[in-house]
Amino acid sequence: MEQPIMRKRGVYGVIVAVLVVGVTTLACLLYVDRMQFGNRLQGAYQKQLFDLIGNVQNLETALSKVTVTASPEQAALLFGEIWRQAGGASDRINALPITHVAISETSKFLTQVSDFSFSLLKLQNSGEKLTDEEWKNIEALKKNAAYLGQQLYTVQDDMEEGKANWSHIRYEGARILGQAQTNLIDSKFTDIDKQMQQHPTLIYDGPYSENVLSIEPKVINQPEITAEQAKQKIEEFLGREKIQEISGGSESANGRVPTYPFNVVLKGRDKNNPVDIDISKNGGHVVYMLDSREISEAKIENKKAIDIGLQFLSDRGFKNMIPSFSQKADGILVVNYVHAVESKGGTVVVYPDQIKVKIALDNGDIVGVEAEKYLVAHNERKIPEAKLNVDEARSKASNKIKITNSRLAIIPLLSKREVFCYEFVGKKGDSTFIVYINAENGKEENILQILDTPEGQLAM
């Protein structure tokens, strides 16, 4: 009897040894795979940071040059360069794995520099001179850009010295959101953000004008919700069946529209690659959502992507939205949807009420939503009756433009004003223009030129 027992023990020993070797091998393979993934992630985010620093350096250089140029033509070129570099920096900083709260003011600064320079470019092209106040603002923006560039270099140094790791930050962000103290980089960007609040108030007609932003957000009048209720809103927005884990929300972000910030891990997705989403404390609306997943080769046409975005908004309660302008970059179509209402005179496009949606062109996923402007401005407006008919308004537009289309619109102007207009689209030679004529007094309120670029149409 002793011999069979010894044999069994020997067999069991072999099995245990095989299991130990197998488990150890599997653990090693998983560790190597995780390390390789982490290295890829680290490399990708390091490149984003490197390109961000390049954008900010070029931004500061262009701001410096424009203060000493005596040529209107050269100034126009430099304002165009400032616009491009600030826009590129804004895109890249928002792609880094940093909480939305930590970079809100920096992101706002870059966006407003881009829009401000664009408005000055239009002034240069129209032959108007810049005011002393505008030149003073440019000097202040140059100083802020220099400060931002210096601080970004310290972040890069910390990375190179091994004090922080992007893949680790991404993982920490998936578990603990809104606690900037949990990692060095979030803390640094929070410090930068405090300084960026000091940028000057920029007076110009644009989508991010301080004058437009100074309006009290309409959403503030809606009832407050709890963080737990905000999680339910996320489930409704993204789809409960797609979600594996929701974290964050314990600390609120008191921005333009106060929010609960969250990280959401989707099923089948690595925890290192969550979706960032902010829910408004008032009303429980999605203010901001960003999915930074890798986008593969485009397989969807722009028109289909626009329809996908439209259906997405409609399914989530944003009714009567229509597409405005769109741009394509890095496999993503960014579409601005605006609210439209019916009146006695026909459909009225309400430009202050707009939502930006990002659609991935590889499979049609919604990978970004920015709804702050809609939540700030949207309300049940009483549309006035136009005092001019369409022919009377058309006569106020230049006869050098061949009008091809017209409709009614509400557009935002300086200092909290909204204006009820006729929107006329027309051609002059190969150029397309949009002219806005006040529907109540016939005043020409604004002119935009539409530029066709490889990325899409641009209103200038």
From TrEMBL:
Coiled coil: none annotated. The chain crosses the membrane at residues 12-32. GO terms for biological process: spore germination. Residues 36-167 form the Sporulation protein YpeB N-terminal domain. Keywords: Membrane, Transmembrane, Transmembrane helix. Residues 185-384 form the Sporulation protein YpeB PepSY1 and PepSY2 domain. NCBIfam families: spore_YpeB (TIGR02889). This is Sporulation protein YpeB. It comes from the Bacteria. Pfam families: PepSY, YPEB_N, YPEB_PepSY1-2. It comes from Oxobacter pfennigii. Residues 387-446 form the PepSY domain.
